[in-house]
Amino acid sequence: MKQKKSYYLQKFSIYIVLVILFIVCSFISPYFLQYSNLINVSRQLCVGILIAYGEMLLIVSGFLDLSVGSVLALSGVLSVSVFKSTGSMAAAFAVAIAVAVVCNLINAVFVANFNVPAFIATLGMQQAARGIALYYTGGQNILQLGDYVKIGQGMVGPIPIPVILIILITIVIWYIVNNTRYGRGIYAIGGSRSAAEASGINSKKSIYTSYIINGILVGIAGMIFMARNNAGLPNGAIGYEMTGLTAAIVGGTSFTGGIGTVSGTIAGAFIIGFLENVMNLIGVNSYIQQVIEGTIIVLAVAFDVVSKSKKSQKVIIVKEEKDDSEKKQKVK
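and the corresponding structure tokens:
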């Protein structure tokens, strides 16, 4: 009975925390539950959720992406530029995704083919993509976006367009993770890449697929980000990779790989989003907010490492007890 309670508590703890946080935030600030604020939060969360999905897929595989913010800025400003030149949202959409996917393919080449640590490969891309974005725009923001802003600020009835996109993308990501060979494979690779390869899983193909999906998500996030800000910002989205990483890790994705869920990632993104929103509402200094978010990352990773260590110790103890009982039976 105790084991059952412990199992359910561990499984649903992130959702319990989310509900408690929501209630606490509603008491901390009288503005939190206002319709305008909730709509604003939902729009802000859309970019974070997209980034968190990409990071979740990569972390589960045993990798990560530190270039998210820079690639988002590069794909976003190029998308804005193309829209202003052509007036075509389809062309702008295609450019945003193409640019982000190319950047992620370059990351995948170094990680999968040359065994460069993902930390180093994506850190290099972080600098390169930001430099290209600044060079292309001359360090200036692109203004007067016209109808482009609809993708980030438009509404369909009472629902923001970015929220509709997130719902559709969530369904697709959930299906990919839970019902495809690729989805099952990334958990095996994250658990042990050599064991996964021995069982017939093509790890290189999975790595490329993870980075391509991440690129698609970052490209869409870039469009929403620029549209929401009503400007092409080459210096925008600085530090957004940490937003995605934090949401994924707080949502239960194990930093050591092999563990993570779509629903947990959503919950993690909402927790971070609600925290940021309520801190803004009550006037917490932006620098202090960074300290709090950094602390959350460290605590979440520490909790993950400790819980994994306890699980492995339990497995060892159970195995030793089983071996001892087998030896005793043989002696008899």
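(Above: one complete record from the training split.) Confidence is low (pLDDT under 50) at residues 315-319.
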